[in-house]
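In response to reviewer comment 3 from the previous cycle, which asked for concrete evidence that the modeling workflow produces usable outputs, we include below a single protein chain processed end to end. The sequence was submitted unchanged, and the resulting structure tokens are shown without manual editing.
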Amino acid sequence: MKNPIPPRPSTNSLSRRRFLQATSASTLGVLALPSLVASTVLGRGGATAPNSRILVACIGTGPQGRGVMGNFLSQPDCRVVAVCDVKTDSLQRGRDQVNHAYQNQDVRAYADFREVLERPEIDGVLIGTPDHWHVPISLAAARAGKDIYLEKPMGLVVEENQRLRSALKKHGRIFQFGTQQRSGSQFWQACQLVRSGHIGTLKHIDVWCAASQPGGTTQPAQVPPTIDYDFWLGPARYTPYTEQKCAEDGKTWWFTYDYALGFVAGWGVHPLDIAYWGCPSLTQGPLAVEGQGVIPTEGACDTAVAWEVLFRSHNGVTLRYRGTPNGYDTPSPLTDFTDWRQQYGRIVDHGTAFVGSEGWILVDRTQIRTSPESLVEIRFSPDAHVIRRSNNHVRDLLDCMRSRAQPICNIDEAFQADQLCHLSDLAIRLDRRLTWDPRKERFTGDREANRRLRIRSTRQPWTKMLA
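The workflow returned the following structure tokens.
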């Protein structure tokens, strides 16, 4: 099924024709792999045939997209057959990476993701675009019959996440969320210990991550010839181009509310996902949330640079979520982590700690630490797993594309983890206690908070993408 979007109108930005003229013929060369056949054609009932190659396209070839694409390139039963980006420099880097991995086979490159989704032989897509494009492109991919690996975070509002969840289930698509810590052995071990009762009754969870950065110029600048800025903006409201907004290094869109929730979601979804993985009942009943934070009022960056959010779950577990300094160093209780260092010892700029009646477990990307120390030595037999294990996030997706089983961070799991980010952001911005009703997926008795759950105004012609 083609994407339900009208053709893109001509603009003063870099048009597709100018893009083709600006990029060499070799850059946009046709894939020279005639022996590859769509695995979905060879399979049955929507499954991928066991002996066929899975064909994948990478939409968004900035640093994060290229990083995840490297994992796809390393899988022997997978072939990256297309790359796509609205920035010619990022597109060239992505194309070079694929051609180098495949010994200079000429991969096809695109400026328009819609042309990628029209290729029937492509089985799945990796979406590594700026955050405000995550759900719109994922919706289009689901409708086009593609399985999806989506870089985190998910949508700009909860309603976007709800619509994506509905579309994935309607079209029977396999979805893996880019919270790759679930495929890390120490995170699995930590959650396995917690859910197996090795710290007794779970009482409290501490979660922290790097906060957003302040600053960024608001001075309009000339759009570089390497970017189709109008297409980059897509559904977001129009604002003039500014230096560094779309840069690969030092980009400001990461911390600008038009395009992202900032690191309260962009980084925070990782340790919050581990908190949820260790305590799935956290979101299964009414959830009270209140928070405070610092949101810059000057500069391009306008997402929280410091925060503290407290969740109180129906099951009695509390969760404290904080942002560690990342360019905002004004001394305050929000930036003082002395209490956690005293409790846990060394902490890095991100992590999750579970506190129970008989001990605690701290896990981040550098370590797993426990009290008592003997907990870390516990080993589990293969038949004693409380939670499923994955050793590679991309491999897990590819295996599930074949079996049509659910990946380790499927849409239902991803929705819950990402939802915690949205609740945190709204609690910070509204600065009052909110109560989340997970059955209705809305707040109890707060009209303004519920209004902020809904899809934001979108520019034409992109409105239909979110319908």
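The chain has two domains: 16-182, 184-388+411-466. We consider this sufficient to address the reviewer's concern, and the full set will be provided in the supplementary archive.
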